Each structure stands twice: as C-alpha cells, then as structure tokens.
Amino acid sequence: MVSETLARVEGPNLTLRLIQPEDAEYVHGLRTDPAYNRHLSEVRGTVEDQRRWIEAYKAREAALSELYYVIERKDGTRCGVVRLYDIVTDSFIWGSWILDQNKTPKAALESAVLSFGIGFDGLERSLAYVDVRISNAKAYAFYVRFGMTEICRDDRDICFTYPRQRFEADHAGYLAILEGGAEG
Description:
The chain has helices at 4-7, 24-32, 34-37, 47-62, 107-122, 137-146, 164-178, and strands at 8-10, 14-18, 67-73, 78-85, 91-99, 127-133, 149-153, 157-163. By secondary structure, it is α+β, with helices and mostly antiparallel strands. It has one domain (4-126, 171-178): Aminopeptidase. Strands 1-2-3-4-5-6-8-7 form an eight-stranded mixed beta sheet, sandwiched between helices.
C-alpha cells in the first residue's frame, strides 16, 4: 500500500502525484507526440490501451514495485511524467521522464530532485539506475551534471548509476537553486 507521503510529493514549484486511469489520454498524447517521443520505445495502441495499462500498473504500485507520477505545476496543469520501476530491496530504475511545453523554469531539476527523493528517502533505497538513448544529448548532459556515473554503453543506450550518498550531498544545493537562492 502506498503511503500518503509517496502518493503526492510537493516541491517549491511542482507536485508529483501518482498516475490515475484518467491520465491515460495525457500520457498517450505525450508518448505519441514526435516532439517528446523520439528517445522513447515505440508506442502502439490507443488511449484505451493506455488506460488499461495504468489500471494494471496499479497492482505494481500497491506492491511498491513501481511508482508512476504525473508532474504538475502548482496550478494543477500537467507538465510531464516520471517513473520509478523495478524497485527491489536496495535499488530502483528511474525513467519514463518526459516534460512538456507546460513545464516551469527549472522543471527538469525539480522533478528529478522530487522523484529521486521518493526513491532514496521515501523508499529508503540506496542506488538508482538510469539509462538514456545515446541520441538524447540533452538528457545525457543533464545526468552528468546531476552527478550520475556512466557504467555501460551499447549501440543504443548509456547506463548510469546514481547513489543515495551523492543525492544527499547535493540536495541542499538543489533546493537553494529551486527556491531562488542560487542561479542554476
């Protein structure tokens, strides 16, 4: 069962809330929009298929093996999604991260800080795994700046690890940036 502290996480400018079947049209739209999907696996199916996927996902959410969040601005406007999955004893995979045109300034940093906080603080895991398509130079640069360590690469993907200790060491600095106390 997901606690209230994991169901909805508030930041200075954004909120992460667990995805609901009513979000299917929004998610399907993101995943099929060429502006956002060029670095994602191919999407097949309809909005109704997406709704059924979300409904089935709710069992994985209840088991705390996967948490899928909608990212919203403080006015309730959806501006992206992010997912923690393959949650096991000491680690999780972070991904399915998409921010759309409605995002706030610094939304990338804030949504990453909030979602990694869920994995490290809320779930008490000590290591995150992240992968990015080689062609996604913008995400790659963000992950390197964020302090992730590249551990492997193949013809398509680059894999990173991100330890809880690194997140904890940098957390106060990230908050200062997000709350306007520093440039970033």
